[in-house]
Amino acid sequence: MAEQPPMTRKRRSAGRITLTAVAKAVGVSAITVSRYFNQPEQVSPELRERIATVVADLGYVPNLVAGGLASARSKVVAMVIPNISGPIFANTIQGFSDTLSQHGFQLLLASSYFSAEQEESAVRAFLGWSPAALVLTSHFHTAATQKMIEQADMPVIETWDYQPQRQPIQIGFSHYQVGVTAARYLHGKGYRRIAFVQNSVVSDFSALERRDGYADTLRTLGLEPWVFAPDPGLAPFEAGKQAMQHLMSGVQRPDAIFFANDNLAAGGLLAGQRAGLSIPQDCAVMGFGDYAFAEMLLPSLSTIKPPALEIGVLAAQRLLQSLGVLPLEGELQRLNLLECQLMEREST
Fold it and tell me: What pLDDT, on the 0 to 100 scale, is given for residue 14?
């Protein structure tokens, strides 16, 4: 039996549809098609419609890398968030992305999970692609990240924080002031044995700033701070449960607990109820974040609501202004202090 030649896979065409091919199909110059993507307002509506039809028919995808090299401007904005799986940053990401997309920019997103080293790695990778701008969370960076920020030839924005002494555009609020607000509120409600529960993510330094605001305020009020740190790495609900069990097992019990975030507070509240405690009669519970479930808990959770959506929208607007996409009257507003909102509910 004659030996059969080996079967070979038909090679898929490597011919990527080019901008020149689109231009030829439309009957215009390649420069006109390039202008359609980069400066559409300079192309007539009729011609834009013709080009759009050909682009769709041919399945053309612009080469953003080549385009960025040619024009020295990318249409991609890089953003590093501490945790994209948690609810607290969701509105910021959505507001930021929605505002950018209205002006033809797209979001490139990475999560550091509160690790300065992972943030450094993401920033280095992003900068290698020459994005239009870089958006970070807070001011807790490694020395290497800080150096990259200083040398970046693009707008840099720090969100979810407010550090007027720093050079990047600041859009956010004071975590220290959040701690002050919570402590003063609980004290004003008559509570005197007020504890604070830290995040089980030990590198959540913003939560430690909230702790410091709480502690300094209690000392000013003549009270001693009472801080509990859950075991590192515990899941948030488990960390809140551990904190509630530990704090309420002693002879001296707190009459109010301010948790670093709503996940911890929910874990603590549910654990307290399971143990037969009445919230807030036996112990008041307060969180931070105003997560979607906070109002649905029974009792509903008192918390402090950060301006998450406003941060995202304003960060995109400031970025677009700095790039000249949105009009700018006078100088760019570098310092943008936003307010958090105290949400008083049944748990306090």
Answer: 45
pLDDT of residue 12: 39
Q: How many CB atoms lie within 10 A of CB 279?
A: 22
Q: Judge contact between 319 and 133, C-beta under 8 A.
A: yes
Specify which residues 130 forms β-bridges with.
none
What is the spatial distance between Cα 333 and Cα 316, in angstroms, rounded to a whole number? 13
Rounded distance, CA 321 to CA 125, Å? Answer: 25
Measured in whole angstroms, how far is the alpha carbon of residue 261 from the centre of its chain?
A: 15
Average pLDDT, the chain: 90
* Residue 140 neighbours by CB under 8 Å, 6+ apart: 116, 205, 206
Please report, for residues 120, 268, 339, 346, the alpha-carbon distance to residue 168 in angstroms, rounded to integers and kept in the order given: 16, 37, 20, 40
Q: Is the peptide bond before 168 cis (omega within 30 degrees of 0)?
A: no
**Architecture of the 74-173+308-339 domain:** 3-Layer(aba) Sandwich (3.40)
Q: Which runs of E-coded beta strand occur in the chain?
A: 76-81, 106-111, 133-137, 156-159, 169-172, 194-197, 226-228, 256-259, 284-286, 303-305, 335-337, 341-343
Question: What's the whole-model pTM score?
Answer: 0.81
Domain boundaries 19-62, corresponding CATH code: 1.10.260.40
Quick one: CATH architecture of 175-305?
A: 3-Layer(aba) Sandwich (3.40)
Query: Which phi and psi angles does 262 have, rounded to 5°?
Result: -70, -30
Q: Please, where in the chain does CATH 3.40.50.2300 lie?
A: 74-173+308-339, 175-305
pLDDT tens for 60-106 read: 776 655 555 444 457 899 999 999 887 889 999 999 999 999 999 99
